[in-house]
Amino acid sequence: MEEDQKEKWLRHYEEDPTDPKFHLHKKQCMIFTPAGKPVFSRYGNVLLLSSYCATLTGIISYTNNDPIKEVKIINEALIIFETDSPLWYCIISQTNESCKVLRAQCSIVSHVLHSFIPMPTIKQTLDSSSNYDVRRVISGHYSLLKNALKTANNCIGCSVNCTTIYPLLVEQRRFIEEHIESSVKVIEKQMDKDGIIFVLIFKNEQIVFARGRNNAKLSSRDIITLITHINTMRRVGKKVLQPICLSDFNEDGFVQSYFDFIKKGVTIVAISTLPESIVSLNIHSNKSNK
């Protein structure tokens, strides 16, 4: 019988980085502060990774303010570093994936992390205290970050800034569009200042429909971030209101994201910038299900 995912992830979390088996994983991802303090690790007990992350920090040497971005160990592994954000990221890969693909995956993980801690907040915190223990904030989002890695691995087009569209007949797509537009217009007429900015429908990790108000747009990274949240909290019949920071849309604040898991693999997501939007989002979701 296949091991339950949560049990497997717990086992991975408890791995000892001094154990030789720790280095046998095909791909490892770590997040740490510029001071070398570990924040998150795909494998291994993050509490035991201080020395490991300090070593990685040492590898990122600077010459004329130009940090090392990658290290190739011939016939063994490719190590890439991302140091352009307040937190530093490292992927150690033995998968033969290119630097471009690995950097795209790293960008997705970073984007998902910033969905619950906006980048300006992390920057301000670390500027005030470089030794701040970010693990205290990250600890409750371990499954989300692991799902970010999984989603990034599964997203074929992430390296070229693309997402996957679910195939539908033109008539089916037109029917959905007309139904959503009608529903949104009714709500906006009833609640003048409580409009819906985005509506998206997902089938598993593919987009069935996407609608932005007044030409508002979501980047592929924002969309993949929503998919990651869906994969983390998916429950058929469940409705969830979740404040999320979609950094490419607005890195300084949260939007109210309403997830309606209407059936297996199918989720409607409605997004508003106003905290009081739960009423209209719930009405919209109920109308869209009909």
UniProtKB/TrEMBL annotation:
Any Gene Ontology biological process: vesicle-mediated transport
Residue span(s) of domain FUZ/MON1/HPS1 first Longin: 27-147
One of the Pfam families matching this protein, by short name: Fuz_longin_1
InterPro entries per the UniProt record, alphabetical: FUZ/MON1/HPS1_longin_1, Mon1
Record-given protein name: Sand family protein
Organism: Entamoeba histolytica HM-3:IMSS
